[in-house]
Amino acid sequence: MLLLAILLGYENGLGQADRFIYDNLVKATQRPAPSDVVIIAIDEFSIASLGRWPWQRRTHAELLDILTKAKAKAVGMDIIFAEPQYLSDDDALLASAIANNKRTVLPVLIERTPIGLQPTLPLPAFRQAANSLGHIHFTFEADGVVRGIYLQEKLHGVSWPQFAQAVFNAAHSDGTRNLTGDNIVSDDYRDIDVNSILQGDHLARIPYAGRPGHFKTISYIDVLSGKIPPSFFTDKYVLIGATAAGIASTFATPVTTDHEAMSGVEINANILTGLIEDRSISPAARWQTILFTLLSTSLALLACRYFSPFGALGLTLFLASLISALTYGAFLEELWIPPSAAILMIVIVYPLWSWRRLEAALAYLSEEFARLNQTTPMVLRHANETVRIKNSDYLDRQIGAIRIAANRSRDMHQFVIDNLNSMPDATLVLSQTGEILMYNRIAREYFATLNLDKGQTPTLEAIFSKFDMLQDVGSNGTDWRVALLHSTPGNTAVEIETRDINKREFLIKSAPSRMTDGSMLGWIVSLIDVTTLRAAERRREESLNFISHDMRVPQSSILALIQLQRNPSTAFAIPEFLSRIEKSVETTLNLADDFVHLAKAESQSYQLQDTDFSSLLAEAADDMWAFAHSKSINIVVDAQEVENCWLNVDRSLVIRALGNLLSNAIKFSPKGSEIICSAKPLHTETGSSVVCNITDHGKGIADADRNAIFSPFLRADEQDHDGVGLGLAFVKMVVERHHGSIEVSSIVGLGSTFTITLPCVIG
């Protein structure tokens, strides 16, 4: 395995697999395009405006003059000017524009000709005017994808920097020409050695910043027409090149897909960005790849040697993840280490080593079953045991033999397990040290709700860390563990009441388990869910308080009024007397009505029917019309958009809920104001819903009171209006029982908006 690891490391990976990983790493590390790199695109729109390609060179001169006046940092014209334009002075105009700019770079193209590879250079006038020349070649890997470039290429003894490198150099020059004897070649090729080979130096991978279209791209015609102000190009790198179909050269890159390609000018923009940001992706040296693969394989072999099969599998997966993480981390540090060979090696190690382990295990199992078969009592042997494994292969026979032995042992435990699972409460069986030995079905289900580690027995600390256990559960500051697992002689069962992370209330009981001689065997701990019981008790207390206080207050007021009326000196006028009694009676009836409706909303018997929401809202508004009219308040209903939205609801309860919201809005709104009831459909991936907003212009609700207004017997306003806070509790109960939601937004002094969302069955 180690020799194979060295060989794969020497081969520097697995080719296409590593290229796939590399491309995805490039996509995962995309970054924002720099603001100082701009592409002026010769696109379809520009061709449609200026005419068919190629254009007159005075057009390019005009564009270059604009960039010169704008003081662009450097200009790279990715356009081949190898042939003169006859019958025109355009060449002179363009040469003058290039010379005036002082930081213009022109491309060099190496082409295959009948006499061998030859450079295609700009015209001499352009070469003399340009700041420098740069080659525009990319390197293609086996899959035809452009991942790298040579920063320097040499042919016939003449070398040129890469085009983007030349642009970068021009930006940092003082404007003087960078053309030397190393990058000037004669136009006369008769004396040139045609057998010369194109040589590349400084192979570098391109640090792509993003997918095609990632860089700021401006249409050529927009610059000429003045649509883009010249100041936009000040102190920027400008690349001019073709992107239009038919004239642009496009290439597959790591950041493109099968249905798109990247133009050469945009690839040069990525290269230039890497130079500006001082980014480069360096491939690892051969010895680094060998060491990386060899070390990964050695760790996988050591894991199989010293860990269990499951542990070795886990460590193998961990190593694969670690290799991936290291590869990603190294890539972020601009070092590319091909990881596929290392991952392949650790994946191969595990099954090979497991096969060797299986051979040893089978031999051991055969010996052990022979011993077990001699010592097992006859009463635990089944008549059909040998028939089960008679017609099977060697491995199945060994496994079947051990299964028989295990079944005999499990039969002895089954009675205990069945009784433990039949207990109605979550029950744990603990050792003297608090280690969990067994737990029943209810406990297992409860552990799942606590999100404990699946597939592993949870620890006692892990279980009780999910409870709001007091640190001191005894009067003398006893710790919860000591209180539950008391080992002092004479102690009996212990009870602790607490809550878990889901706010469920539990009574935890712990009782010692002893052997026949009285010595400690362990502990039996039961977790009794008393949430429903405690909620019922609190509900009963709230109801009693409601009946004893809130229902009695208006009745007491009536009795007081009657006593005052009997005394002529304190008696009210008959109309005022009757009005006061009427108000108290109405208060009592409203309280009783709210209480009955809340009880109905909490019941399980809803009468569901399909109905449209607009009719529900209209009926609720009609019911509240008289109340609103008495306060000169106008109710505006806008539900046209939900006329075709049907809900499956209890019609009377939903109307009552909407009426409660309208009633509250009327109570808290000033006279002459307006209440807006609007409803709109909401379509999401999970289905359709109706969203209803009821907006008033009242005094609003303070932030501190918003959590209280939906709780029974609690109100945000205890002074201005009667009631015990059952109305909004009823609304919340009805909405949630119909699988909806209710929210409130409010600004103190401006008003409140209650928003109800209910699911639709149609619409």
Automatic annotation (TrEMBL):
- Give every Histidine kinase domain span: 546-762
The domain of life for this entry's organism is: Bacteria
Tell me which Pfam families the record gives. CHASE2, HATPase_c
Membrane spanning segments where? 310-330, 336-353
| SUPFAM superfamilies membership | ATPase domain of HSP90 chaperone/DNA topoisomerase II/histidine kinase, Homodimeric domain of signal transducing histidine kinase
Q: What is its EC number?
A: 2.7.13.3
Which reaction(s) does the protein catalyse, per the Swiss-Prot or TrEMBL entry?
A: ATP + protein L-histidine = ADP + protein N-phospho-L-histidine
The molecule here is called histidine kinase
> Where does this protein come from, organism-wise?
Herminiimonas contaminans
Lineage start: Bacteria, Pseudomonadati, Pseudomonadota, Betaproteobacteria, Burkholderiales
